[in-house]
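User: Earlier you gave me the apo prediction for this protein. Now I'd like the version with magnesium ion bound, so I can compare the two side by side. Same sequence as before, with the ligand SMILES added.
Assistant: Got it. Here's the input I'm using:
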Amino acid sequence: MQQSLASRIAIALIGWAVALLLFFPIFWMVLTSFKTETDAITASLVFHPTLVSYAEVFQRANYLGFALNSVVIALGGTVLALLFSVPAAYSMAFHPTPRTRGTLLWMLSTKMLPPVGVLVPIYLLFKFTGLLDTRTGLIIIYALMNLPITVWMLFTFYKEVPNEILEAGRMDGASTWGELVHILLPLTLPGVASTGLLSLILCWNEAFWSLNLTSSQAAPLTAFIASFSAPEGLFFAKLSAASTMAVAPILVFGWFSQKQLVQGLTFGAVK
Amino acid sequence: MATLSLRNIRKAYGPAEVIKGVDLEIDDREFVVFVGPSGCGKSTLLRMIAGLEPITSGELQIDGVRVNERGPADRGLAMVFQSYALYPHMTVAQNMGFALKLAKVPAAERDRKVREAARILQLEPYLERRPKDLSGGQRQRVAIGRAIVRAPKVFLFDEPLSNLDAALRGQTRIEIARLHEELGATMIYVTHDQIEAMTLADKIVVLQAGRIEQVGSPLELYHHPANMFVAGFIGSPRMNMLPVSVLESTAAGITVSLPSGAALTVPSTGDVAPGTALTLGLRPESLRPDPDGQLAGTVKLVERLGGLTLLHVETEGREDVIVQIEGLSMLNINHPVRLAADAAALHLFDAAGMALPALTRHSLVA
Ligand SMILES: Nc1ncnc2c1ncn2[C@@H]1O[C@H](COP(=O)(O)OP(=O)(O)OP(=O)(O)O)[C@@H](O)[C@H]1O
Ligand SMILES: [Mg+2]
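And here is the structure of the complex with magnesium ion:
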């Protein structure tokens, strides 16, 4: 399709505007983290950059402990979710029953429920089972939280694999496990990888459950940030420094996996 | 060695029965072709034999042993799919060797068998390529190679040539016939292509709406169709059907009157009273223009195919009749024409569509 110069410029401008809008908060956060607390409450762009906030944040809290929790919980939740959703999506895509579509929609509909609605029951369940403030507890809740999304994504990737290829595998003597490992997973690897990446990012940034179900032992970086916002009033510079340190790992990770993510999300798994 | 035996095989998807009781015996080394209109259940029947679709009821035996409960890989069959269904992430060699790898055949032996199959199918230059870098015909051969490598007792083909162009289809058809000779395996082949069915089959199974209409050799189906459906389905252009009524039944055959009033004696037998309404079947290739012919009409369309000419003739009874003539015909549109039929090639069908038995069997049909 041929587009006029004017409309191309307009599209470029809108694109840049949206990108700037999305990027601005992050930019401001990083900027603020290098200010002193007095500079931080001004909107000034002129200031003496300092690492004071970072030093204070490091002094006051065990960053590495939180970060380790984040890594373990995000990886654990993602692996657990994939462990269940890979076979679930396989069964839905290749051995559907009349109820498969309904089940998929129902799974997705659970994402429409505000999590706070089930906070009390979940909290009590965790309390009785001794899962409060444990990594295991968060891994379980994160996996459950992402399961509808990972099943849906994998389902759509699997759907692109012709059934006959799997049937050929079955004729060749592949068991269900063999079909998955030798045929389906290699064919949908980009899709499975982007599903995993998305799950990692969602787990990393999750704040509601981590704040409500952990206190000290299993608290991830989201709790680490929050700990700088509450008790002694707002300290913007320190809060920004903590936030920057919390998002930096996933930002870097996201940057490197960006190509993979976009590819997996936009193109078919095979072809 | 492989014989198959299907005993009252049925398939239902929920309340809808799509295979309604199929009985069939397949001999060792036989080439059996399933034909029938789209949706009649050819693929379903083949997939039940393959083990890809559970059999709702009935029994499937291979070499006299019930295999209903066995998985696809444990039946000693290999299947070639219409879409080829090659593994896109594997090379040609890996595609062909996959079954052997799963069966834990040592790499050296695997390699030898893959090379042997590649040699038979002239695929040696492509062993390291991926399927996407092959032409349609080459992919087809890889799919066949993948089946050969496993040395199955029975080969199953589901419309294997329908994605190829006409020239390649003819070539591959000959290839498959040669393979059947060479490998001495039992083959079951689904197609809706008449020529494939007639040229490849030892035995054709005509299916309609989940039932077998007739089983027989290609020539048997052509010369002695059991009913109007088979008569219309086998042979191209299709058999002409004219409504007739019985005049008399003698030792020489049944004499019927055509819509135009002319009488014709068909060498068939049957317990038919004069006046009974029957259907007369005339193959286009058994009709010829003849000044003394019983059938009169007007040419409405001439199709010149080079070696053959097809005349569409409107007869006095208002029925359209197709006539196939060797070579060129000088007849043109709106020409009046009289047609004569080769009496031995005429067929009569009763009101239920069943063929009346012919007095003599065709010399080439047992
Ligand atoms: N999974 C299914 N659920 C319900 N009905 C089905 C299913 N699969 C096939 N059918 C029905 O079974 C019938 C036979 O289908 P089948 O694929 O065997 O036909 P076919 O003879 O191979 O036709 P074609 O020549 O078009 O390939 C069809 O009417 C089809 O609608
Ligand atoms: Mg079919």
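For your comparison, keep in mind: Residues 63-94 of chain A form the longest helix (32 residues).
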